[in-house]
Amino acid sequence: xxxxxKSIWVFGDYRNYYQNRVTLQLLSRAVDLARAIHAxxxxxxxxxxxxxxxxxxxxxxxxxxxxxDHPTLTSYSTEHYLALMERLAGERNPxxxxxxxxxFGREFAPRLAKRLxxxxxxxCVGLDITPExxxxxxxxxxxxxxxxxIVTEKHRPQMATVRPGTFREIPHNxxxxxxxxxxxxxxNLPVSGVRVVEYERAVQKEHIIENATVIVCGGRGMGNxxxxxxxxxxxxxxxxxxxxxxxxxxxxxxxxxxLVGQAGKHIKPKILFSFGISGAIQxxxxxxxxxxxxxxNKNPQATMMKMADVAVVADAADLLNHLIKExxxxxRE
Amino acid sequence: MLNIVVCxxxxxxxxxxPWDEKTGTLRRDLAAGMMNPACKxxxxxxxxxxxxxxxxxxxxxxxxxxxxxxLREALAMGANRGILICDRMLAGSxxxxxxxxxxxxxxKEVSGCDLILxxxxxxxxxxxxxxxxxxxxxxxxxxxxxxNLEITGRTLRVRRLVDHFRETLEMEFPALVTVxxxxxxxxxxxxxxxxxxxxxxxxxxxxxxxxxxxxxxLEAHGSRTRVRxxxxxxxxxxxxxxxxxxxxxxxxxxxxxxxxxxxxxGKSIEAKKKS
Lengths: 333, 275
Prior knowledge:
Strand content of chain B: 25-35%
Low-confidence stretches of chain B: none
Helix content of chain A: 25-40%
Distance between the termini of chain A: 63 Å
Number of domains of chain B: 2
Oligomer: heterodimer
Largest sheet of chain A: 7 strands, parallel
Number of strands of chain A: 16
CATH superfamily of the largest domain in chain A: HUPs
Strand order of the largest sheet of chain A: 5-9-4-1-2-3-10
Order of helices and strands of chain A: EHEHEHEHEEEEEEEEHHEHEHEHEH
Radius of gyration of chain A: 23 Å
CATH class of the largest domain in chain A: Alpha Beta
Radius of gyration of chain B: 23 Å
Order of helices and strands of chain B: EEEEEHEHEHEHEEEEHEHEEHH
Low-confidence stretches of chain A: none
CATH architecture of the largest domain in chain B: 3-Layer(aba) Sandwich
Mean pLDDT of chain A: 91
Largest interface: A-B, 95 and 87 residues
Shape of chain B: globular
Structural class of chain B: alpha/beta
CATH architecture of the largest domain in chain A: 3-Layer(aba) Sandwich
């Protein structure tokens, strides 16, 4: 008897541009993983008017598309999508299901895993596979300071949600073809217990500091509120956001939404400027994923200075003024 | 009167964590604990509902004996009753197992529960999975990341922000909601509250057997995932040190890292050549 074709599924999350990008990133990784275990890559697309996504996922590496297109599925309903995925996965037994760690994915995936009676790891930043087909899921914890390798040994499918931006999408190829299975909406789709009364695209918040690529953080070493406010200028020049430590927030130099650390935001900028921050653990707990750290402090022994890629020994407020002046002279588009 | 259960978790207060190398899990017994921040927001949400609509609030946690502290804190804030599930047999449970155990406790200990609140995620493992999985265990309608809750009769209205969409959802009790940290800024426990929490305590400490959970149950409903290895992200920082007068140091910083910084901001910061 022929062995069952192994299959890696990617759930098509496409509600907005950035969610769809995550789906494409997952397809890319799924293609690599599938090659290693001779599996097919299958994208599941449910919703209404979904031809666009069927085409796009084909162009980005899916070998098979399971599509359910129906007006009932117009709104993004977690419960409807759960019922459909539970059924599809139950019938076809995929080896792996990957879901983007979007807000939607992180609510949807745990419930799906529960229904499929299998394990799930959250917000993975790495996925690898053993020759036996065991998915090794690397998930961050404690603000990214620790990483854990997680496996689901005995249960299938193996499921993971994956952090946006972890993988790079492969360039589209509209010559590619996939087997597209257009499936009917099951007749006994349960009524959702959650009614969507209204929804609208949110006005982009000014401070989504978690998403900022450059963050300028200030601590007590800035001296006073006036000095601290100048961090806005530097952030403006660099297209970044301002973060703050707890003492600064308590002092009223910055709002609570700027608080970075254990009790506040966990940030993952490409570059972090840290002005006058000693580096108490309550603050550094939120910095686990800053790529490149520039610290400025009078005290070269400060923890933050030791953690930094570049440590500038100077009065933080003083250096800030010079840095702003220098950058204004230099920046060219 | 509403019957509300808030599931809370004690998390380690520090990030330098004692890990058990052998099992790959956290030695929670060695780390000082605090109530997970998002759970505190969930307790606050419950207290505000209590004030507005009247409610009995049960706080529920699972953990080592020390986790009783977070129950006392919640009682001091104004919750009515605490339940600690504490059993070595349950240690190291993943979200799949945890949600099963919490569901068993709610079914057994809280009759006629209208609303279950959880923090949207924890500051330690950050999975955000227990709430949604608990909803599945109890077959409840659910919503994650709630910012605002209103009740009309038996209908719960939830406002939330998900993936840049602002949504208003409605569901009928009983229901489960995970609370985000956007609103419901937690209150401090009052002195009276603290007194009460330590004198007239209503905390039940239950083990697996009390909940009717056997080894066979755990075989069927226990952890699905295993942590193979835990490691600290490698940070081989060069730790370049720049000293000198601030004006010069600022210039040197930009000179040395013009490529790094320029690439990220998408602009050139090369010094203009003097002509």
